[in-house]
Design a protein that fits this description.
This is Putative monovalent cation/H+ antiporter subunit G. Helix 1 packs antiparallel against helix 3 and helix 3 packs antiparallel against helix 4 (65-105). This protein has one domain (3-105). It has helices at residues 3-28, 32-37, 40-59, 65-105. The longest helix has 41 residues, at 65-105. The model has no long low-confidence stretch (mean pLDDT 90). It is mainly α. The termini are far apart.
Length: 106
């Protein structure tokens, strides 16, 4: 097993532990807003770690500029989409919670 494969395996294990921790936290979360906020470790750290692990594993055979650029663009796209979608999901969940509270008071 090459050093690149060992590093890639370690990155995948760390990403898997983050995903498992997120799933456990999602099961224990009290409401939808908290659940939406708990997705941060998976979308912000674990998914980019998996992309980096793929690049490190492929680097053993020689890294090409094409694969490096694709990995950087994939990580940037993932982080941008995750942050924008998290913002909109949080706003909609907060509005839904407010409407339910108003309906319960009426």
């Amino acid at each position: 097993m090459s050093i690149a494969a060992v590093i890639a395996t370690a990155l995948v294990v760390v990403a898997t532990l983050l995903i498992v921790a997120t799933v456990i936290a999602l099961w224990r979360a009290p409401d939808a807003v908290t659940r939406a906020n708990l997705m941060g470790p998976t979308t912000g750290v674990a998914a980019p770690l998996l992309i980096i692990a793929k690049v490190v594993y492929d680097a053993a055979d020689g890294i090409t500029p094409n694969s490096l650029i694709r990995a950087v663009l994939a990580i940037l796209g993932l982080l941008i989409v995750a942050s924008v979608s998290g913002f909109y999901m949080g706003r909609s969940l907060q509005e839904t919670a407010r409407e339910r509270a108003e309906a319960a008071d009426a």
